Amino acid sequence: MHMFNAPNLITLLRIALIPLFVLLFFSPWRYADLLAAALFLLLSLTDFIDGYLARKRRQVTDFGKLLDPIADKLLISTALVLLIGRGVEWWMALIIIIREVLLTALRLYIVKGDIVIAASWLGKLKTVSQIVAITAALIGAPLVYWLMLIAVVLTLVSGIGYLVGIRKATGNEIINVPNTITFMRMLLLIPLVLLISRGNTTWALVCFTFIVAMDKLDGISASLTRQRTKLGEILDSFTDWLILPATFFVLILFGYIDRFYFGVMLLTSALFAASKFLYVSRSKDTSSTPLGKLAVGLGYISIFCFLLGFVYRYAALWVFIGSCYLSIAYFFIFSFIRRRTS
Question: Does pLDDT of 171 surpass 70?
């Protein structure tokens, strides 16, 4: 089935319009907030449209299954980060983003296997609550805090239900030593964000050092305990690409990095996610590539440079961004060649 069909093109358009949403959000124009809210609603609605079209036209593809949740999470996560301090608390945004990224990783694992987890009404209600809360925050409506709180609760409850369903379907593969370390690494984002927001760079450095060390520890433990699994590979990769953009966005938000880089990082993250999912859908390989590992390492170094106030920190950032685009180019080229030869 053709990869670039109507539903998938709608999904790609949703990703492509996220930078416009960001521009409207920062625009000083009088009606920019209303337009940003309208665009957010429109993009959110396309999530239902592309799914409906895919089922109606029988154009459901693995690429679409992989790309659609990425588009959703990019839109929701971007909006939440932008709205911190405008009715959205940082911990609310972080809980939702961690949950969404974690379950997106698990969905990728499910797509690659023969596991079916039925969509729950709680999950659909969660999505609606997030859209309502974010839209309310964008237009400055009252009760935003409580709407966000409802969204957070539904996000957690539906996430737990989904995890239970996956655990029943996969046995104990989801809970082992390496995956537990990966989950802990993900949770360390919470104190890291808190420390950065309070300007406590010393302890932020300590926390981030633990995160980096645990990235190596989960791989070592997987080898030692012989618990290396496809799910673990996916979780590890997703955790890397949750921690890096999230930390950069927080550093931008609290003035460690110039705001210009918000758009740069957003575009880079979107392209990386899309190209990676395209690569996985073509190669069936969920492990990290050498270029991907290089980009992660350079990303860690760049964050250390900003936390330490290193004089060449922006040069380190551009080296990291460049390595990301090398990976993006590799993913797209490989996918194109694979498509032509298949």
Answer: no
